[in-house]
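>> Question from a student workshop board

For tomorrow's exercise we were told to take the sequence and the ligand below, predict the bound structure, and bring the output to class. My setup keeps failing. Could a helper post the expected result so I can at least see what it should look like? The ligand is UD2.
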Amino acid sequence: MACQGHYVVTGGAGFIGSAIVRGLLREGAGPIVVIDNLLTGRESNLEEVRARIDFQRADIRDYGEIAPLIRGAAVVFHEAAIPSVPRSIDDPAPSHETNIDGTFNVLRAAREGRAGRVVYAASSSAYGDTEVLPKVESMAPRPKSPYALQKLVGEYYCGVFSQVWGLETVALRYFNVYGPRQDPSSPYSGVLSLFMKALLERRAPTIFGDGEQSRDFTFVEDVADLNLKAARAKNVAGKVYNGGNGGRVTLNQAWAMLQEIEGVQIPAVYAQPRAGDVRDSQADTTAAARDLGHSPRFSFEEGMRLTLEWYRRDAGR
Ligand code: UD2
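>> Workshop helper replied:
Here is what the output should look like for this input. Compare the format with yours to find the bug.
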């Protein structure tokens, strides 16, 4: 069972959570408890660090199961969630239960167990379509999908736990995170993982809409770094920060870049736009840079190349 002053990563077997686990280990932090129900997470994401962490297969929807693991933690990185805008539209109940009820359970366990801080994986989807880019934390949220709303409720809960009960929380609104280990096997997977899988299999990807929608794609190592900084920062309790890169790339540009890197020409197939889709997304990183010391290191092209190489190796295993 977990000991005092440990680090907890919910969703720690997932793509982002496992990057945070590796970041913690690099910093020499410990002990580390990973909570994951392996719904979308995979134990193989923790393969090389398995012996150095305490892996607990548990579900954040079950308070009784997770409370003892969170009790006395120094920091809880709350990454466990059911992501995907279309998944939350096709099947809203599971994502509601995990993203809202599960987050409440994590916060409640952190408060009752006197944890030091919760760093919460919020989402840029909370902004919806804004008139102005880049998107600044002071803008009024306009969630367009169940998923966006659920992630926003989690943020609000963080704020309320902080104000009412003095639990230190920091919410990081991730902007379309991509990188090695992102699972490309589901239609709900992140678009760049699907693009890369298609590219390596020499298939046409599907682009929903005209492909001119844009995203601030953020490399997973930069997001893991930001989490570690948010865990240490002073005077940030109850606050919300963008976890983005500050750039903006259209899907057409992303697919063009991948074809160029690979030296192939495969026209994409265009389909109907997706319900609940945000048109443009770009982070203002001023507040995160000022208060948390956020300084993303990976350019889009660098991140894309590293990720593509990882998928190439993974496919060959
Ligand atoms: C949202 C959030 C993101 C994160 C994520 C978790 C926004 C702007 N971003 O990502 O921060 O929380 O949810 O799931 O809300 N697409 C295709 N072809 C495909 C798959 C997707 O064209 O095969 C399009 C899709 O319609 C969208 C874009 O690619 O315009 C990105 O889709 P996504 O599912 O990778 O991520 P998104 O933006 O919904």
